C-alpha cells in the first residue's frame, strides 16, 4: 500500500473515531496500526504505524489532515466548512506491474467543502461534499451515511452504512487511462463516468480509564463498476482496519 493511501485512510479512520468520542476543548494523541487492500494493480498491502492527533473545540476541529470551522453547532446539528489534504494518488514506481509503471502520476490535492451531521435518538446522519481546489482532477466527492451508537458501559460501538459519490472528473483522473498512456503501457484506454460506492463501517472505543482509550475502526467499501472496470484496478473492494490507543487531555 502506498504511503499516500495510508494517509488518506488515516483521515477516514481518525474522523470515524473522533466524530463519536471527542468532547469540546479536548486533545487526543496516540498511536495505531493500519492495514488496507490497495485497489491499484500491482500494489501490495502492508501494515503501517499511524500517529493519532485530534482536537475538538467549540468553533474549530482538527483530525489528522482534516480541519474544519463550525458554522452551526448544537446538540443535534453540526455544519462546518472543512478542508483536508487528500493524498489519494498513484505513483508508477509503487506498482509491481510493468504496464502500470508506464502510466502518468496521479497527485494528491486539497479538498474543501461542507460537512453536516444530525444527531437524534434514532441515530446520526453524516454528510460531506467536497471538491478539488488545486485543479488536478477538478473532481467532486459526496458522502452520506447513517450510524447508530451503542453505549455498553466502558465500550462504545458505532456501526454504520453509507455511500460515496465520485464525479466523472474524479474517476477519470484517478482511474482513467488516456490514449497516450494506453499506447505507452499496453493497457486498454478507459474513460469512466461518475460512480456510487456503498460501504459498511464499525468503530469501537473502550475507555480504559478517564484518560486512556483503546479503539478499533473497520470499513468495507464495494468499489463501483466504473472503478472496477478500470485497467488500473484489480480488486472489487477496498477498506481499512485500524486499531490503537489514545490519550485525551
UniProtKB/TrEMBL annotation:
Stated name of the protein: MltA-interacting protein
Lineage: Bacteria, Pseudomonadati, Pseudomonadota, Gammaproteobacteria, Enterobacterales
Primary site of residence: membrane
Subcellular location: Cell outer membrane
Protein keywords: Cell outer membrane, Membrane, Signal
GO biological process: peptidoglycan biosynthetic process
Coiled-coil spans in chain: none
GO cellular component, one term: cell outer membrane
KW Amino-acid biosynthesis (keyword) present: no
Family indicated by similarity: Belongs to the MipA/OmpV family.
Signal peptide: 1-24
Amino acid at each position: 500500500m502506498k504511503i499516500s493511501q495510508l494517509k488518506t485512510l488515516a483521515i477516514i479512520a481518525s474522523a470515524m473515531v473522533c466524530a463519536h468520542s471527542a468532547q469540546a476543548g479536548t486533545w487526543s494523541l496516540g498511536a495505531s496500526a493500519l492495514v488496507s487492500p490497495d485497489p491499484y494493480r500491482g500494489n501490495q498491502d502492508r501494515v503501517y504505524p499511524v500517529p493519532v492527533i485530534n482536537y475538538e473545540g467549540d468553533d474549530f476541529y482538527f483530525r489528522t489532515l482534516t480541519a474544519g470551522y463550525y458554522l452551526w453547532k448544537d446538540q443535534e446539528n453540526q455544519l462546518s466548512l472543512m478542508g483536508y489534504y487528500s493524498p489519494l494518488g498513484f505513483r508508477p514506481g509503487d506498482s509491481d506491474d510493468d504496464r502500470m509503471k508506464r502510466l502518468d502520476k496521479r497527485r494528491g490535492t486539497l479538498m474543501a467543502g461542507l460537512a453536516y451531521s444530525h444527531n437524534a435518538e434514532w441515530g446520526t446522519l453524516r454528510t460531506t461534499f467536497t471538491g478539488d481546489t488545486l485543479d488536478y482532477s477538478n473532481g467532486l466527492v459526496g458522502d452520506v451515511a447513517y450510524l447508530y451508537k451503542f453505549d455498553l458501559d466502558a465500550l462504545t460501538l458505532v456501526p454504520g452504512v453509507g455511500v460515496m459519490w465520485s464525479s466523472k472528473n474524479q474517476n477519470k483522473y484517478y482511474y482513467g487511462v488516456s490514449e497516450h498512456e494506453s499506447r505507452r503501457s499496453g493497457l486498454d484506454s478507459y474513460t469512466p463516468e461518475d460512480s456510487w460506492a456503498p460501504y459498511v463501517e464499525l468503530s469501537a472505543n473502550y475507555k480504559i480509564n478517564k484518560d486512556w482509550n483503546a479503539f478499533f475502526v473497520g470499513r468495507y467499501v464495494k468499489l463501483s463498476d466504473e472503478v472496477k472496470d478500470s485497467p488500473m484496478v484489480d480488486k472489487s473492494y477496498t477498506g481499512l482496519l485500524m486499531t490503537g490507543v489514545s490519550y485525551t487531555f
